[in-house]
Every structure is written in structure tokens, then in C-alpha cells.
Amino acid sequence: EAQVTQNPRYLITVTGKKLTVTCSQNMNHEYMSWYRQDPGLGLRQIYYSMNVEVTDKGDVPEGYKVSRKEKRNFPLILESPSPNQTSLYFCASTRTGGLYNEQFFGPGTRLTVL
Amino acid sequence: AQSVTQLGSHVSVSEGALVLLRCNYSSSVPPYLFWYVQYPNQGLQLLLKYTSAATLVKGINGFEAEFKKSETSFHLTKPSAHMSDAAEYFCAVSEGKIIFGKGTRLHILP
């Protein structure tokens, strides 16, 4: 089954404690993204990756890092989380080429930073 | 630059009534347009997509959307609302990068 998986689904942490949210896709897509979803703000792109070892900032990259060492995985790293990073995070994998791009989303990670 | 505007952050309709969720876009080239649905505690699921093949697009769960170039709109409709339609709906436009609207939460009244 084609899917995007994220772990953990829920995480409560404290300010300054480094954390990583993993994302994996099994569709062999080159393009992957991270979004955060906040009430009234919709989805905002944090980082994206067009291929292995190619990453770039999205609209709200401050306080986040990513890496793309292999095609299927795209972890999101918060080196020193702060309360304003409390949010719902989605990883997405995008089928590109052809007429249009279509995104497939993971189930989300709800992060609370105390 | 592309952008998406969804009118109404909350919409309430009675069960059995028409659902209309509004989406207007701006794009410098013919756009590709999408509607996604997010049920509580779940990720986003593609409802339907417009890829220039036909202006009236049918999606899952009885939803459809009509692309109107003259109005730069891509409104989502369903003839008869069901309780299970209660969710948040996102319109998105793609010229490559996908841009999402801020979402409309649909409430179904019994």
C-alpha cells in the first residue's frame, strides 16, 4: 500500500530538548515536504526536498532542520524546541512529472512544547 | 504569484442541504487545483483535482467542483450533506509548488 508514515504521532516535550520526527514514503517520490498546521493559518511549508541531498527552505523554516540522506526518508529536526513550535506537523510526498503534482500526506504529528 | 483564498473559515449546513465551499485562486499560468479533506485527527486526503481536462470535476464521497476561469474560482459542492462530511476542507493551487488555502471547517447540523 502506498503510504507516508510519520513517527511519533504525538509528542510532548520541554523547551530546548532536541527532537526528531521521522517521515518515510514507499512511493519512490523524489519530492518531499514538511508542513505545520495551525488554527486559522492553514498549512505552511517548513522545508522541502527535491531529491536526495537537496533541501531548501519553505515559508517558515526558522527553528527547524531537515536532512535527506536517502530517497524514502525525510526527518524533521528541532534542535532546541520552543513553545511557539507547538503545532500539528505533516510530512508529504509528491508525485511529480506529467501534467501536475499530487501530494500524499502522512497522518500527522501533534507536538506540544512546554 | 499563485495564491488561494477560501471564503469562510467555518460553514454550517443542515443535514441533507446543499454544501458550498468557496475557493478563489490567482495564478499566472493555467493552474492545477485541488480540494483536500481532513477528518478529525487525520491527515489530508485528496478529494478531487482539476487538471484542465474537464471544468466539472467529480471527486469522492459525492463532492464535485467546477473550474470557472472567468471568476478564478473552484468552488466545492455536494447536493446533500451528510453528518460524515463534517471535516476541514482545503483548496490548493499548483504551478509546481502547491499552495494551500487556510481551510474551511464544515459543520453539519442535525
Write the layout of secondary structure elements.
The complex is a heterodimer of chains A (114) and B (110).
Chain A: E1 4-7, E2 10-13, E3 19-25, E4 31-38, E5 42-51, E6 54-57, E7 65-66, E8 76-78, E9 87-95, E10 102-105, E11 109-113
Parallel strand pairs in A: 2-11
Antiparallel strand pairs in A: 1-3, 3-8, 4-5, 4-9, 5-6, 7-8, 9-10, 9-11
Chain B: E1 3-7, E2 10-14, E3 19-26, E4 32-38, E5 44-50, E6 56-58, E7 64-68, E8 73-78, E9 87-94, E10 98-100, E11 104-109
Parallel strand pairs in B: 2-11
Antiparallel strand pairs in B: 1-3, 3-8, 4-5, 4-9, 6-7, 7-8, 9-10, 9-11
State the gist of this model.
Chain A is mainly β and 114 residues long.
Structure in words:
The complex is a heterodimer of chains A (114) and B (110). With 114 residues, chain A is an all-beta fold. Chain A is 0% helix and 53% strand. Chain A has strands at 4-7, 10-13, 19-25, 31-38, 42-51, 54-57, 65-66, 76-78, 87-95, 102-105, 109-113. In chain A, strands 2, 4, 5, 6, 9, 10 and 11 form a seven-stranded mixed β-sheet that branches. In chain A, strand 9 and strand 10 form a beta hairpin. Chain A is globular, with a radius of gyration of 13 Å. With 110 residues, chain B is mainly beta. In chain B, strands 2, 4, 5, 9, 10 and 11 form a six-stranded mixed β-sheet that branches. In chain B, a hairpin with a 5-residue loop joins strand 4 and strand 5. The radius of gyration of chain B is 13 Å and the shape is globular. Chain B starts with a strand and ends with a strand. Chain A binds chain B through residues 4, 35, 40-43, 45, 48, 90, 94, 99-103, 105-108, and chain B through 9, 32, 34, 36, 41-46, 49, 51-52, 90, 94, 96-98, 100-103.
